[in-house]
Each structure stands twice: as structure tokens, then as C-alpha cells.
């Protein structure tokens, strides 16, 4: 698959998993530098927001929008994955005044290669949204073709609502 950035076309590192596939095995690291494996995400419906570089405006908007939705879906887990280092992610949180966000670092590119989302010529992950059910099966995927664009938030939230209930705060 290919994505674009400012109109230039770039190939992804591999084949993307399809809806209905099991989430591939990978490892990423949380803000405490603790390894998080695929198995750690299974057991609860999870929305995975993938951003190319947390320190850019569109990635910040995407991360904030999903973080704001998380409280409305207590039966779901929300996480953001980028290949920024833990230090860069921590710095972003401090600069943005954000505390309750589940950021995972794929600096080692395990997630990127296993999911086929790494964009070698750009050095980052392709912007995308993934939802897995409690067994780890992919039930929704959205690959954003133009990487400088925001994802379709409403489509992702509508897909999530088919699996879990929304609560009004």
C-alpha cells in the first residue's frame, strides 16, 4: 500500500492486516519504559490511534481528540502509538499539559513492521486507526491516505460504538 505526504507518494514497509485478522505480535513501550506486547492489549476492546510524529499539529489534534473521547467509553481502551522516543512523548505531554493519555513508543519499529505501517522513506509510521475486539481480532481499520490530513474521527467512533456503549458525563 502507498500513502502520500504533501502529494508525494510513499510505500509502506509491508502488507497491512485486514479486518477479521488477528492483531500481529509486536512490542512497544509505555511511558515507564515497560514493554507492552500484543497480548497486553487483548481482553478489552481497544482503539489504537497511530500517528507519524507526535510533535506535529495534526498528530497533536488526533491524539487530543481520541483522549477526549476515552472517558465516554469506559469499556474500551484508547492508546496512541508513534515511533517517537519515550522522552519525546513525555516532553509532548508536558508541553501540552496532558496527563491521562496512554502513549506507546514504537521507537524499535516492532509495531510498524509487524503491522506494515512503517514508511521507510519518511522514517515514521503511517497515520491510521485500528479497533480490536476483546479477542484481538481487528474489527476496524482506517489508513489515512494523505498523511497530513486528520482521520475520519466519526467513522472510528461509530465503529467503536458497535462494540461498546457510550456514557454521557
TrEMBL record:
A molecular-function term among this protein's GO annotations: thioredoxin peroxidase activity
PROSITE patterns for the chain: THIOREDOXIN_2 (PS51352)
Domain Thioredoxin: 17-162
A Pfam short name: Redoxin
Classification via Gene3D superfamilies: Glutaredoxin
Entry keyword set: Antioxidant, Disulfide bond, Oxidoreductase, Peroxidase, Redox-active center
Entry keyword annotation includes Disulfide bond: yes
Designated name of the protein: Thiol peroxidase
